[in-house]
Amino acid sequence: MRGGHVCIVVSFLLLLAAVSGEFAGDYSKLSGIIIPGFASTQLRAWSILDCPYSPLDFNPLDLVWLDTTKLLSAVNCWLKCMMLDPYNQTDHRECKSRPDSGLSAITELDPGYITGPLSSVWKEWVKWCIEFGIEANAIIAVPYDWRLSPSKLEERDLYFHKLKLTFETALKLRGGPSIVFAHSLGNNVFRYFLEWLKLEIAPKEYMRWLDDHIHAYFAVGAPLLGAIETVKATLSGATFGLPVSEGTARLMFNTFGSSMWMLPFSKYCTTDNVYRRHFSGGNRENHHAYHCDEHELQSNYSGWPTNIINIEVPSIRAGDEAYPSFVEIAQANLSGMECGFPTQLSFSAREVSDGTFFKAIKDYDPDSERLLHLLQKSYHDDPILNPLTPWERPPLKNIFCIYGIDSKTEVGYYFAPSGKPYPDNWIITDVIYEIEGSLYSRSGNLVEGNPGATSGDETVPYHSLSWCKNWLGPKVNITRTPQSEHDGSDVQVHRNIEHQHGEDIIPNMTRLPTVKYITYYEDSESFPGKRTAVWELDKANHRNIVRSPVLMRELWLEMWHDIHPDKKSNFVTKAKRGPLRDEDCYWDYGKARCAWPEHCEYRYLFGDVHLGQSCRLKNSTYDLLSHYV
């Protein structure tokens, strides 16, 4: 999954520093720590590689991820710089790549007149921060090599040591704690960091360190129980829009240590919570075995909507060929007891994450042995944490879990042999989607299963995104409002709704079919001194959610309210939403005036090319924000 869209909260948060003189809160002491997602950090060459039959070579510091020009003209050279050894995650003997550093590593992946806007991640948001006078040292990006497993990130790059120093440096430099904003895989990275930190800090000092260095954690689009698309990328390949074949994408993806990090897994299965020194050279005789409760045996599909994988394998292997073609398989089956019909096997999320699936197809796929080795060594036997287990609420003061819902999202696949050689030896014959609380096949037929109350964000299923609702306590306040500016007439509030741990919270609220809503689940009483909130944004896409002006507005208001000395509630009011910037004002052609006349007015400035551009705020941003205390 390409995530990495991770600066919006920082933009809003630190914008307030520009007006800090107008209110008693001190945003100037806060820093923003940005943890990007999968494939959202630039990688640069650290080798000299001569590419035959191409005028383009790779030299030190040349862009590798993402340079589409070299990808198109010298794909074999490019793959050498991208791929890793699947067993030990070392670089190719002819080329190595390393992550870039600083904000430039996450702004545009492929800078250029044409490619720049297409690969832009946070360039516009950084420009926005600069326009409002945000200091350069207040926004801190922490890029990482997203190809590596969590243990290799520390072993090769000392990433978690550096991340700890980043928090400590920000505290010393700015004088206050940091806001952590992570997107997609960045949330998995942050989770591992919190567990790794337990080994680095004395137990009595652990909570004090967290309180001193982390003010709030914003988890956006977090695949808390994994992502189904990981399975597709592993078996048939996912190009993510790159000009490469699916087979080439699969070949590359399966060499990454991170390829197993987002596998879907069961919420009912955990491992032993054993902490040992990871880099002391000690042995690993204590295997982290999975322990599943009775719900895993009683539930269908490990609690997911349906089986993750349905795959056809030959019932009789053809001769001595390890990976026979589909024709050979058919001929072998025709002479067997099953009259030529292959066997269809189904696998739940637990059977995917514990390796059962890869063992079952070991004789029919050359990648299975390598993936099993990676899964066992880098995840099941990780001495810090097995990431393929449910995540309980982190021990942080303020947590906001934010994700999109109500979009068509893949939740299951049907695979069959393609008759082609590896890496194109599997094809997808059908896809199961969750759509607004129902399951459908690719052909549009209704499918039986256990669909959730709604669907996911086009990339991560709702079942995985909504796991953070378990971080809420037994009493939850729920508010639903339109995403656009509103006067409060369509705001619905339910207070003290009972919530059972492990169960979803489904609000009994109405919605108009033409309106996009945002639903807030808030709890500030269950854990003394801690606040937990879950925000669900209708139709917000996984990869673009942080570009949403709606999310930008809500984060800004929440952080403004959070530090204001005169705040009257634990969370910012949802009673109304009006324009906060000139860009929020627009021309109402039906009434021949600027919309929101109480806040906006027509004020032409030289260079305006249409009426909407001339609609501007009447009052300062500070005056408008005072209504949300």
Automatic annotation (TrEMBL):
<protein>
    <submittedName>
        <fullName>Phospholipid--sterol O-acyltransferase-like isoform X1</fullName>
    </submittedName>
</protein>
